[in-house]
Each structure stands twice: as structure tokens, then as C-alpha cells.
Amino acid sequence: MKSRAARKRMMPLRSWLLAVMALLLLPLGGCGFVDIDKRFFVVAVAIDKSGSEQKPYRITLRLSIPNSKIEPGMEKSQVETIEAAEISEGVRRIKALLDKELDLGHCKMFVLGKKLSHDDISDAVDWMVRRRDIQGSAYVAMAGSQGYDILQKMPLSERYSGNSLFLTFGGDGTRSSYIRTEHLFDLQRRRTEKGMDPYLPVIRTTGNGYEVDRLALLDKTKVRTILTPEETQLFNQLDQQYVNSIIKTKLDGHPIILTATDISSRYTVSSNGILKMKVNIAGAIEEAPNNVFNQDWGELQKMFERDLEKDAMALFQKIQKAGVDPFGFGLRYRATHLSSRAYQEWLEMYPRLKFEIQAKVKIQGTGLIK
Amino acid sequence: MNRYFYYSFVMVAMLNLMLYVPAVLLENRLNGAVSSLIVALVIGTLLAYASTSALSKFPGLGLPEILRLFLPEWLVKTLLPVYAFMWFFASSFALIGFTLLMNRVLTPDQPAWNLYLILGLLCVYGATRSALTILYLLEITMLLVAPLVLLILFKGVRSPDLSWDAIYTIAQYVNRFPTLSSVGAGTFIFTGYINMAIFNRVNPPNFRLKGRWIIPATGTLILLATFFLPIGFHGTMGVERYLYVWTQTADSMTMRYGFIERVVFVFLFLYLGLSLMYAITGWNQSMEFILSVSKKYKFKVDYSIAPAANWWVCGSFFVLSFVGLLFLNERIDFEIAEVWLIVRMFLEAATVLFLIVVSWRRKKPI
User: Fold this and answer.
1) ipTM associated with this complex
2) What is the number of CB-based contacts under 8 A between chain A and chain B?
């Protein structure tokens, strides 16, 4: 223990040090901070090809204008567009058109124009991933024509700016088996991964809003093929076991439709070039000709199975012909084959890969009527 | 005292996500990182067990006192500054690394030193406190932070976006020979035991550490999560393109019904707490090593007014690390970290070996 006198002598020293510390804090001005009412929140960004040589990019931002009333259709947005040589330059140039600071931190939707996606998406995606304030969990999609048109569209039901697109892809609002969401981090993963290729949902504008029911399949840089709505749904069923989706068959020219409530799909890729997939689907019949209840269910199940196998085979052959791998078959091959040459083997094998699909459909009921 | 040991252990194990450990491991993922994880698991557990057993033979004594018992005074006087530097470097480096990260992600409009002023001064204040205060602070921080960090890890494992195929693919590279830098990075997860070097002074005479199985259990879980979760989220190839891979991994998750949708902000604030706590304990112990160089120094478990010497030592730590910050950026940081993780492993192993030898001699009456 020090004597009280000694401690008293030390007190000035301590306060002196404290004073220096307090002085050091003075240069912290809080200069990095901008008030919320002096910010423009970007809700969606579209990147298009402009077609001109000097300024190849056309950047469009949809900015949310805060509104005191939250009512469907009352929402106001401001859309700004500019042509630029580089993406970041375009965003900076748009800042010059505005009176408030841009904030990309809340932007959850990125739309790539059709021309850009068919040309090369690398620069655009690299820019998004590199920027610190763009979320890894943002949604990325391809526009049916121009990304600018998608952002121009103001759907009637929107409660706040951009809400419609967020609900479409977020799975909070609509849950459609035709929609496949792509996140930015997943796009980046698929762009770099050996044995798995990227895809982008395609947004098109309709009278009241958007239509998202197709999927564009890309090789590492550009679109190779686009799946039809039926193929997109099948892709969701096989890859993500997406329930509340439908499968179809025909009985004497009448369509029968089954709503899947339970899907499981498993596949293995063997080194002799055969992919074996087992799909089990169980569900209830939603649409059928009269008196389907008294038909032979076993026979109906066989018909469903046959059609499902046929459709799946067609889908696999389509993506194989396009030379892309959105399922990640190659990655599965790498994961199950112990060799550093596995990827090389896979690349040689994929064009000749044979598919064997074994479907099993179980009818659980026929709904409320016979 | 039992739980304080585990707080310190879990703090360091969790903190590694933010430091350069995942980066070093992931860079070597195709040549030996997986086997290094296993080696690191064994070495780390052995070192932790050995050091805790050895220290239990010296209740109430810290590493400086144990050194004085067995080594000549001149050697003690040269060794203690080396240890002080070790602790100072580790914690300052972590704090600087975290400052740079916060600066990149949250406050890019300000210079990094601006942020470091606040964080560093907080740490100076924290580190000058008594050992008892710091242990209490450690408990409070860990009780607040650890459940949420575990929640985020759990969320990651359960996420449908996680690609298990990518994880299996990398796991197959287990047959590669382990590399030194990966082992160095892997053992860092277990290095929380080393804080006992000073905190052992607080241990009561008949102290026995219970539940040591927690060390390999949590160590394994956190080590596997550190390495494999980013691979599952960013793919076998894409994972190496990120500078701060764990920040990106947290940013890939969303909490749709949480208060804050972007997990990355929760994650950053949790790690702000962990980094500050780590720097505070590190600087405090480094300070104790320096003060212990004088043979007359008397350690006190608790005091109401921090001695002036504490302020001088911690103040100079702050100035030194501040100067360091001005010269560092992510590239240099990464290169230093790789070397540092290896050097640290050997220094720690040597210390533990010394403790083991002297604890055997202690059994015989002195």
C-alpha cells in the first residue's frame, strides 16, 4: 500500500493523462455521418448495355422517396439513368444529378439487362461484390429486355418503393414454384466454382407488374439458354425439392394435375458416366376428369412417373446440350471422387453423360370430390 | 475461477474468425489445410492440457514468479520483455486488424486512425484496471456475445444455401501433407489457455480445473466452422477471392424476422466487443509482464485507483500501436500474420514445455 501522500502526488499525473486523452478525441468530428433526410435510398439498380462505343454501360437507379402515408399505389420513386464508360463512374455521375447522398446499403435488387447478360456479366458482378455496401444477400436477376424498363415500372400494389420485387424474390410474399431466386453471393460462388454454373431469373414487365417465371442459364460469363416456365418449375422441384408445385399427365386426352406436397430427389454420378436420379413425389390431385377416384390409382401413378421421367430427361439433355451445369453435377462428382483430376475427368465426361431417372409418384387423394 | 478460464478460452477461439486464421487456412485449402486442422487439434489440445496441469502445481503464481523460482535473475529480466512483447503484439495486431475492417465496411469516409483513437483509448482505460475487474468484464462480455456468435454459426450450418458438396470436395484434400502455416493458424484457436500465465495469480491454493473436455470439444466445433462454413457459402474456388471471408459469409445470411435483417451488422458489433475484450486482456497481461521485471513489484488482485505505472505502460502501448497502424494495410497485415502465427506457436510450445519440466521438479520437495 502506498501512503496517502504518495497517492495524492500521483493524482495530477492521472488527470493530466486523462486530459491528453480527451484532447486526442477532439479531431473526431463525426464527418462521415449524413442525416437520414439527406440521403437517397437506392432500392434497385439496373445495368444495361447502351450500345455506344465510348459509353458502353447504362446505369439506372431507382430511388425511394419517403412518404408519410404507406398505402398501396401511393408510393413515389425517382428513376435516374445515365450512360457511362464504367459502372462506378455512372453511379458517381448520377450523384451529380441529385440533391441528396446516395445510399446503396438498402439496395436489394440488381437487374442485368438482356444484352449485358448475353454478352458478359463479369465486370458488373465483380463491381457488386467488390463494393462494401452492397449486400451479399441481394437478389440478382436478368431483364427480359432492358433493365431500365423493369425499374421504370411502378406496380400498382406497391406499398413502398421496390417492395414488389423484394416480395417476389424474398419468399415472404408470393411463393411460386416458377420463381427461382438468385442471391449475389451465390452468383459469385457459381461464377467461380468448378462444376457448378450460374443462373439468373428473368423478369419481364406485364400490365400490372412483373412476370418472373423463366430461368436463364449461364456459363461462367454469359447466357447460354433460357428455360421455359415448365422447365423452371421442374428445375426447382428436382434441385430444391420445391413443394406446392405441380406435375402433369394426360388421361384419354384430359389433363390430370397433381400438387406435390412432398418431394425428395437424390442423385449420384458414377465414374463410368452415368447419372442416376431418384425422384419421389407425393401429393393430391388438383385437377382431373370426373370420377378419377374410381380409376386405378396405380395406373395413374405410372402415367405420372412416365411423364415426369420424360420431362426430366428432356431438361437434362437441354442443359447438357447448352454445356452448362446449374444443378452442380460436376461439383457432386468432385465431392464423391477422390482424385485431384476429378474435375478434368468431369469436363471430359459431361458431354457424353447418360441420365437414368427413376420417378416414383404417390397419389395421396383426389381432393374433395370423386 | 473455473469459468473464467473457459471464458478466456472461448473468447480467443471465437475471435479467430475475425483475425487472419481463416484466410491462412483457406489459402492452403487445396494443399494440406485439412490435415493441418487435425494436427492443430491434437497439438492445441495437448498444449492446453499440459499447461493447465502444470500451472495447477503453482497456485497463485503467475508465469513471472514461476520463472523467478527456477531461472537466474538476468534470464528472467530478458525473458519477461519478450513475453510482454508477445502479448502486446497479438492484441494490438488484432485490434488494428479489426479497426481496418470496421473502417472498410462501416466508416469508409473517415481515416482508420480516427476510429483507432476511440477503440485504442477504450482499451487503455480497460487495460489499466485490476485483474479482478478485467475478469468480471470478461465474464459480462462473453455472456453477452457468445450466445449470439453461436446462433450465427448455427444459422450458417442450417442454411439451405450451404453447399455440402463443396465442403465434401475440400474435405477430400485431407491426404495432403500438413503445412506449417496452417498448423500455426489452427493452433491459434486453442491459445486461450495462455492467458492463465498471469491470471493464474488469482487462482486459490487448491484450485483444480474441471471439465477440460470442453477444450477439445468447443475447439473442434469452432475450428471446423471457421474453415468449412465459408467454403460452403462461397464455393471451393470463390472462397479465396474475399479479403474478409467471414464478414462476407455473415453478409450472405439474413435474419428475415430479426430486428436487423443483415446479419453482418450484428456480427460486426459482436466482434467489436470480442476484439476490445481481447485487446484489453492482452494489454493488461503485457503490462503485468513489464511491471514484473522489477523484483520489487507486488501484484494486487484488486485496487480502486489504478497505479500511475499502469497508465504509463498502457499509454505507451497505445502510442506504439497507433504508429503501427499508420504503416499497416491489409496486404502487409496478412504477411505479418502468417509469420506471427507460426512464431507464436513455437514460443507457446516452448513456454508450456518449460512449465511441464518445472512442474515435475516441483513434485519433489524443494
Assistant:
1) 0.87
2) 102
